[in-house]
Amino acid sequence: MRSRLTLLVLATTSLMIIAFLVPLVLLLRQVAEDRATVRATADVQSLVAAVGTADPASLQQTVEQFAATSPRPVTVFLRNGTVLGIPQTRTPAVELASLGQESLTVESDGGGREIVVAVQGRPEGTAVIRTVVSPAESGAGVARSWGILFGLGALLVALGVFVADRVARNLVRPITDLSDVSHRLANAELTARASPEGPAELREVAGALNQLAGRIQELLRAEREQVADLSHRLRTPLTALRLEAEGLRDPDESARLSGAADALERAVSGIIQQARRRGDEPQQCDASVVVAERAAFWAVLAEDTGREMTVDLVPGPQPVAVSADELAAAVDALLGNVFAHTPEETPFSVRLSASPSGGVLLTIADRGPGMPAGLVTRGASGGDSTGLGLDIARRAAQATGGRLDITGGAEGSVVTMVLGQP
Description:
It is a single chain. By secondary structure, the chain is of the alpha+beta class. The protein is built from twelve helices and twelve strands. The chain has four domains: about 1-140, Beta-Lactamase, CATH 3.30.450; about 145-230, no CATH class; about 235-280; about 280-420, Heat Shock Protein 90, CATH 3.30.565. The protein is about 60% helix and about 15% strand. It has a five-stranded antiparallel β-sheet with strand order 2-1-5-4-3, with helices on both faces. Strands 7-9-10-12-11 form a five-stranded mixed β-sheet, with helices on one face. Helix 5 (about 140-185) runs parallel beside helix 6, helix 7 packs antiparallel against helix 8 (about 250-275) and helix 9 (about 285-305) packs parallel to helix 10 (about 325-340).
């Protein structure tokens, strides 16, 4: 925008300068020609008295002296055919002046101006004084004047462009600041605010953008409070469930249900903490620690169901830009899908490695009959449903700038979770 405004002013100023200079240049040339003509005419008029009254000998001496000192050729044509001064042939203008007894100024064949003055009073008839103003004399000083005018025009254009660039910069800078603030808000930096600068319209836009950012913060705060309140309400039925589990007569069944209730309570506590956490705080954790902990948790269930579980974790630390709770929920969702959609005794593997392009790769592969097509579609969709858990993993990966890839076939399914580093 700044360059376009500068180019617009450059084009406008140039057109104005051209529209002003072209007539002025033509006028200067015409003034120079008229000035040279007037000067030559005045010089010729100084001979009129001598030509009209002097005797032939005195007239010849006077004309020759004048022609020798004049910067232009001067010739006197007498009626009897005598030519005094610089020898020249009689031109049509001279003939016309001698017959019509009048003075003329005409364009000469050489490009200059021919000035003829008829002088009466001589015994032999009308005499004619002729001189020629050359093109060099007519254009004397014109080139210098043109140079000064064009230099002044170029200076004015440069000054106009400089002023336009300063004004455009002052106009564009607030727009650039607004763009930067909008990008920061789009990247979840909700504390970004625009400075009200520039014209009134831009200040109004900056104020509206700041109000929008504040409103977004209020809505997110209200949403977090609602989620936290809902999670708190779940504690009451969880407590009742734990009491029911403790009242069972079968110790193994009671322990199993109590463990499930404890796991559910930990998940609810994680939701509360996540809901109350400030959205602009940086999130990160050690992926090797979190994955190792969740793999150890699921290893017990894998042993009970006769599944061979292979765990290959790169040595830590492996920092990723997601909280430990979110990463643990994503790993639980992916491993839960393996147990839910493959038969018992199906082997699977959990592998954590460093990505060559930066970040961390979490790969969970099984050798079952393959992941159902609907499960793959649902996990890769843009919907908000988390019924199958893959949306949880997808959002966790995208929060770090990574992605979730799922491939399924007859020989099993492979889920790759790419996690970005903080």
